[in-house]
Amino acid sequence: MLLLLFAILFCKVSAQEGQIQIETQNTALILKAGKNGLLYQSYLGTKLKDNSGYNLLSKENTKSFVINDGNPLVNLRHQAYPTFGTDNLFESAIRVTHNDGNPSLELFYISHQTEKIDSNVTETIVNLKDPVYPVEVKLHYKAFYNENVIEQWTEILHHEKKPVMLYDYASSMLHFDADQYWLTQYHGDWAKEARMQESKLTSGTKVIDSKLGVRTDMYQTPVFLLSLNSKADENSGEIIAGTLAWSGNFKFSFELDNKNSLRISSGINPYASEYTLQPGKTFTTPSFIYTFSNKGKGLASRNLHAWARKYGIKDGEKPRLTLLNNWETTFFNFDEKKLTDMFSDSKTLGVDMFLLDDGWFGNKYPRSGDKYGLGDWQATRTKLPNGLGFLMQEAGKTGVKFGIWIEPEMVNPKSELYEKHPDWVLKLPNRPESYYRTQLVLDLCNPQVQDFVFKTVDDIMQTNTGVAFFKWDCNRMMTSAYSTYLKNQQSHLFIEYTNGLYKVLDRIKTKYPNLPMMLCAGGGGRTDYGLLKYFTEFWASDNTDPFNRIFIQWGYSQFFPAFSICNHVTSWGNQSIKFKTDVAMMGKLGFDINIKDLKADELKYCQEAVANYKRLNTVIWHGDMYRLISPYDESRAVLMYVNEIKSKAILFSYTLHPLYDPQYTAVRLQGLDPDKMYKVEEINVMPEAKKSFEQSGDSFTGDYLMNVGLRVSSSKVETSIVLEITEI
Ligand code: DGJ
């Protein structure tokens, strides 16, 4: 004890040089320059009350890092940004070949500086340098204090005479030491996005990545949860939730080594993407965004939601538009009359906007199906003789906003655009063109193509009043990809395409800063914080069957806030309109049904649900989310949102496919104030129907609701209960 006290005091007086503390309210990441000049991660976890403890930790770790007793310099286990080519035995964050052919890099700590950007955000930059070759690396760490989120990225720069080849260029490398590591990944495909799969990591390397080039998140969402020591729990245990803000190929690799240490490298997928870095130019990686929670995945999600609202998603603190979309009702088959009728339907329903989907453009090759017209962004005269301006005007007269679908990165071979610019598409020389949904990807590496895509949006915005909203789709991945523009630098394609897309979106955001846009990619093929800087929301999946949808929304809810996840009520599935609407209401609500097909009581129900949603949406969008019962654990799902001052909460309870007489137990609520009194009322009830929640209208203390709980689940297959909980 005395010894320990002495050690603490000693560390306090000799504040270690080169020790870097990156801290949020509850988390600390500690880096330390070793005597050998290399930089190590000595800690990532719960912030200590007393800083001096970190000095002890780094000493402790220095001992255990020595992998070869005979050689104290070989001390590479927890390097903050490990290099390839000298004595690293594991995954490297960076691998380069110098222009003299030397394939090695050493990065020594040079200096670091920390700047307080505002009262919540601090940025630390650590400068590393090779002692022999003029290569520099800057590690950036942005710490968001209140949200407990760290954003990490890297800059690589050199002053050699000729270009340096970059083979690996991770955004970050993190290290963990635990008994067990449980990884949750979010795997999927079209109509089954973001399915949660948890597995225990075994020795060796597990990789989650994408090689699709564009629409990159179709099979794997670029997110993961890592739980230390035991399976991930909603309310307890140590969890890292991480995601990459990059919309091209990504890669997370989890390497469990011979000492049971885990290293996670995150970044652009270097697969087929070696990068020629010119002297004096900086290669900047995308950001790896993560949070550490010592109270399970619920808190990790709330941290990320809070961060996304303020920093991660375009206009995260502004309201969203409820809408009626025509895709599932009409597909390509509509005309002016059908659309203007649907403006009135939107008004009847009470939503803010009508969203015109695919099929409105193309004249030489009218878009009567998915084989024609992509690229020709002029309204089809035979379908819409008065053009888009007329539709904007009519929607305005009806009192609804008007939004429109585009897919500006793509082209059908049957289009005027393709006929005019056959060299603007990605296609291999000497091989046949490779189609998917009868379309090709435009070459966004080419600045002329970037101009064209920008102009597509700009022209629509310059027509009459412009539109109030875009749905930006992307229905294929890259295959047989080759850019005529890039000539002999084809390995830059995946990166330069994504950068080209960001350039276009930057221009759009600058010229139209208040324009909301939905990100869509043939369902949820694009769900990343790289694009969400430019988009207010994303389309989670084309699968809108509410039973399936609960799982999809549950998956995305781990990383993305409710206001960003678009859910529409459609004719998928034969469940009641109430169940469909209640499921869609847990995120951003929209409709894609023929209002005229609804029975009178169904329409009335929908109108009331829209009105309830508008009354309560700030709680759903900006409140804290608590997942109470997971559909992965039971045949029901229960979650709730609570506003910041804990005066209002909304609870959604969905019953899925239980066995006969499931005897559901009471559900303990979370996030309320134990000392407050709350009235609990069932809302979203079908007209004339009896309320399903027997205690509707009763009042309880927060203490009771959180410790005893309520029986909020009906036992009937595919039914739902929505509760409004109000402080009295
Ligand atoms: C795929 C999207 O996911 C759908 O919502 C719809 O917009 C179609 N594309 C239109 O082609």
How does this model look, in words?
- Keywords: Glycosidase, Hydrolase.
- GO terms for molecular function: alpha-galactosidase activity.
- This protein has 728 residues and is of the alpha+beta class.
- Among the domains are: 82-312, alpha-galactosidase from lactobacil brevis (Beta-galactosidase, Chain A, domain 5), CATH 2.70.98.60; 625-727, Golgi alpha-mannosidase II (Immunoglobulin-like).
- The protein has 13 helices and 36 strands.
- The strands form 7 sheets. Strands 5, 6, 7, 8, 11, 12, 14, 15, 19 and 20 form a 10-stranded antiparallel sheet that branches. It has an 8-stranded parallel beta barrel with strand order 21-22-23-26-27-28-29-30, surrounded by 5 helices.
- It binds (2R,3S,4R,5S)-2-(hydroxymethyl)piperidine-3,4,5-triol.
